[in-house]
């Protein structure tokens, strides 16, 4: 029996040990106040749209004695919604320094301060007759989302064992999708989506933050952060013991010690240092392409078309809110399925397959738009395309992209890599919000041609340049990237790396 088969048996046996419960509870506690919060805040803002717009108009009338034009109300509402993206960009830039100075767990705990202040502002906005307080609240929840979207996958990837690293890190996407569905349900008119309850709806994001604040302190910090960043071997061993149970920790400790030795004397890198570092050039290019494609692939645009397609399919306007829950449920089901498949199929297959399927469904969807008024059953095919497109996105790109910086960057570069990836994600989200109306008006039924092109090019890039990371240590993945980073001098680089590690040890 080969060594890899022996390792597999050992790992499969270790999955049955009681450490799984500590790891699962750690993941749940971190995600409830993290990416679940992100998904929840994306969806709850949709339900009170008409109520908040009416509140804005009434407030202006009280202050200045004039009614706003329709386009002015829409403009103010657009600012309220887009403040979330602006806050997300600020949060992404804060995440790196926070992860370095406070650690992964403490950063997530401190991050809840933004949510609590935001909830207080949203709750008091109507009584204070101030729609500016809602804008500020959206900026603060955006900062919270930007921080958690970067630090949470880092925390998960560094805390999970190698054979579960992908599945644990991918749970971030599952909680995001669940947060979207939860927000859609809480935002129903029968619950908190009514006109009298919208301040309470916008303030409910304090509840997940409070749950995290009460539970996360009981769980361990990232073992890799404790050993490699803080140099505290005793605390690292204790954290590993809690997360792994009573199994043999020597193999994992050896891998972390090798990574620590390779990073000996290096300080945590900033984004500019990372950009200048030839040793991570292809890792950085991969993250830039993958993070940009996440927002430029058209998934959010498909949500925009959902209301129109549901209406054309004959669904009554007051019932569309229930049909919209189906779109969020699709993404949640896809994320959970991806979580189950990632350690079997690997990262490349899921990302490539997701983008290729999205490209196919985008073509079919454009056909349905063109024939919407000519063929009676086309709206139903359009509904199918919406669900299939979202499922394809959730099955691969939505979840796997977020864990790439954890897997392909070493400890000292990881926070800066997440800063760059997060900044690009939020900038592209803001860019798409601005450009999408012009794309629709300019291209009409062919509006998904740019998105289809992005999906195809992204799948091609992943196929050519991303090595499979499933079941590999950070040092093994780095060696594979070094074949491109140091093309022509790879043998010398590898030999030098081995000498440096053995000397340090």
UniProtKB/TrEMBL annotation:
The keyword Protein biosynthesis does not apply. InterPro entries: GLUT, MFS_dom, MFS_sugar_transport-like, MFS_trans_sf, Sugar/inositol_transpt, Sugar_transporter_CS. Pfam families: Sugar_tr (PF00083). It is found in: Membrane. Gene3D superfamilies: MFS general substrate transporter like domains. It is a multi-pass membrane protein. The chain crosses the membrane at residues 20-40, 75-96, 108-128, 134-155, 167-186, 284-308, 320-342, 349-371, 377-404, 416-436, 442-466. This is Solute carrier family 2 member 11. The lineage of its organism: Eukaryota, Metazoa, Chordata, Craniata, Vertebrata.
């Amino acid at each position: 029996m080969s060594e890899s088969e022996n390792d597999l048996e050992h790992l499969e046996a270790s999955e049955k040990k009681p450490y799984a419960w500590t790891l699962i509870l750690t993941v749940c506690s971190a995600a409830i106040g993290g990416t679940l919060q992100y998904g929840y805040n994306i969806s709850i803002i949709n339900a009170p749209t008409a109520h908040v717009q009416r509140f804005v108009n009434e407030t202006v009338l009280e202050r200045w004695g004039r009614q706003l034009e329709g386009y002015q109300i829409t403009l103010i509402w657009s600012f309220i919604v887009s403040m979330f993206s602006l806050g997300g960009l600020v949060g992404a830039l804060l995440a790196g320094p926070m992860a370095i100075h406070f650690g992964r767990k403490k950063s997530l705990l401190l991050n809840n301060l933004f949510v609590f202040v935001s909830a207080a502002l949203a709750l008091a906005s109507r009584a204070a007759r101030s729609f500016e307080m809602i804008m500020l609240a959206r900026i603060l929840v955006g900062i919270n989302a930007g921080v958690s979207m970067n630090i949470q996958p880092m925390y998960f990837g560094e805390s999970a064992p190698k054979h579960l690293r992908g599945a644990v890190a991918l749970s971030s996407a599952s909680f995001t999708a669940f947060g979207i569905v939860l927000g859609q349900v809480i935002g129903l008119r029968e619950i908190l989506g009514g006109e009298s309850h919208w301040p309470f709806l916008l303030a409910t994001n304090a509840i997940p933050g409070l749950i995290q604040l009460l539970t996360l302190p009981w769980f361990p910090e990232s073992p890799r952060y404790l050993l490699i960043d803080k140099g505290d071997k005793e605390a690292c061993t204790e954290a590993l013991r809690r997360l792994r149970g009573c199994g043999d920790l020597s193999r994992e400790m050896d891998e972390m010690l090798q990574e620590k030795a390779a990073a000996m004397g290096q300080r945590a890198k900033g984004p500019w240092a990372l950009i200048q570092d030839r040793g991570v050039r292809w890792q950085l290019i991969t993250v830039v392409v993958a993070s940009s494609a996440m927002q430029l692939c058209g998934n959010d645009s498909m949500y925009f078309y959902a209301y129109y397609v549901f209406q054309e399919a004959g669904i009554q306007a007051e019932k569309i809110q229930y049909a919209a829950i189906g779109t969020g449920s699709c993404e949640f089901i896809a994320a959970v399925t991806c979580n189950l498949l990632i350690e079997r199929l690997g990262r490349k297959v899921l990302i490539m397959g997701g983008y290729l399927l999205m490209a196919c469904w985008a073509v079919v969807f454009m056909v349905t738009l063109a024939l919407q008024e000519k063929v009676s059953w086309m709206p139903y095919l359009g509904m199918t395309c919406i669900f299939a497109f979202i499922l394809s996105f959730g099955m691969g790109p939505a979840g796997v992209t977020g864990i790439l910086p954890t897997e392909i960057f070493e400890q000292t570069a990881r926070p800066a890599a997440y800063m760059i990836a997060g900044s690009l994600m939020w900038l592209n989200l803001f860019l798409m919000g601005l450009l999408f109306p012009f794309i629709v008006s300019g291209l009409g039924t062919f509006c998904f041609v740019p998105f289809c092109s992005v999906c195809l090019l992204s799948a091609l890039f992943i196929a050519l340049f991303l090595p499979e990371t499933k079941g590999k240590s950070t040092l093994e993945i780095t060696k594979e990237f070094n074949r491109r980073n140091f093309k022509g001098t790879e043998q010398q680089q590898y030999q030098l790396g081995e000498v440096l590690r053995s000397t340090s040890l």
